[in-house]
Amino acid sequence: MTATTRQAARPPAAAPAAPPAAATPATTPAHGPALPEPRGPLSAGVLAALGGGSGHLDDLPARAGTADPYGEDLHLALYVLYELHYRGFARVAEDREWDPELLRVRRALEDHFLAALRRDVPAGRTVDEAFGELLVEPVEPAGHEGGVAHHLQHHGERWQLREYAALRSLYHLKEADPHAWVIPRLTGAEKAAMVAIEYDEFGAGRAEDVHARLFADLMRDLDLDDTYGRYLDAAPGPALALVNLMSLFGLHRALRGALVGHFACVEVTSSPGSRRLAAAMRRLEAGAAAERFYDEHVEADAVHEQVVRREVIGGLLASEPAQEPEIAFGADATVLLEDRLGAALLEAWRSGASALRTPLQPEPGPAPAGSGAESPDADPAGA
């Protein structure tokens, strides 16, 4: 290329710089989950603030300290605030995730919830003490004849299976997301092992095998709406508390040991529980996708159990031995909240009532004979 050609090919001089543009306003998504209905003054204040109404947040931290730490109101408020760190809500600006006033309220709610958990689970346990019981017998609510998975496997009706899936969708449609927060807080062997497990949870690189997608397929088999957050209004407090526990542990670096303990508890108890639920899906003819979700967890989580105990917990204890009581606390807190949810479900179902705050719509069309598809919402007296 000649000098003349190079001169001709030179781009024109840049135009004078434009004056700095005004700051781009925070994105306000038009689509996404709708804000739920409040359940008390705490959730009403949070929802009013997020909805652009006249809600005031100033008195909510003080109110949080006197609320039921396991109650509907506190856990809906906390769930909504945590959801800002996941997918947010329709017509709520994305920058509210880090709103200082909302974070102040969230901290008060968290502190009250965490204090109750530390009060109500055994203190200072070792990892062997916390996990020894789980390795002998799967987690089941005491006094309830084997717990929810056992009930659904042997006695449950299809409408109860649908309620169970609707409640679990609050977590399973974002399965493994809360646990991913611990990855940058780990090092060495425990970090590598945690990433390996999460890789499986996220489909091992295949979108169609992401566990959240598999659960959405399960929901469609059961004629449930698989829209993210669809059943938030229907979920009772114990279901919200269990999902909030994951977010609480995940969002705080100081609780990394508790998150590892929680995650290990889930993996250790998942395989036997999933085997029972897979049997329930087959007995009630839930469908191939419904069966696949739990069959997948029977196999995968049996392997994950070994990895999480030996490499994730073992690695963390090797690098940070002071985390042992926190790991045990995370497992024990998980058992406590699973027991509370299981007891609530079984108490309702055994009385013939829905365990949801708003019963599900009946499945379309006639149910197969003997499927037990008649649900309380089909009978006004049971709603």
UniProtKB/TrEMBL annotation:
Entries under SUPFAM superfamilies matching the protein: Heme oxygenase-like
Residue spans of biased composition, Low complexity class: 1-12, 20-30
Pfam family for this entry, one: Haem_oxygenas_2
Domain of life: Bacteria
Region feature (Disordered): 1-47, 356-383
UniProt-listed Gene3D superfamilies: Heme oxygenase-like (1.20.910.10)
Protein name: Iron-containing redox enzyme family protein
Organism: Streptomyces tubbatahanensis
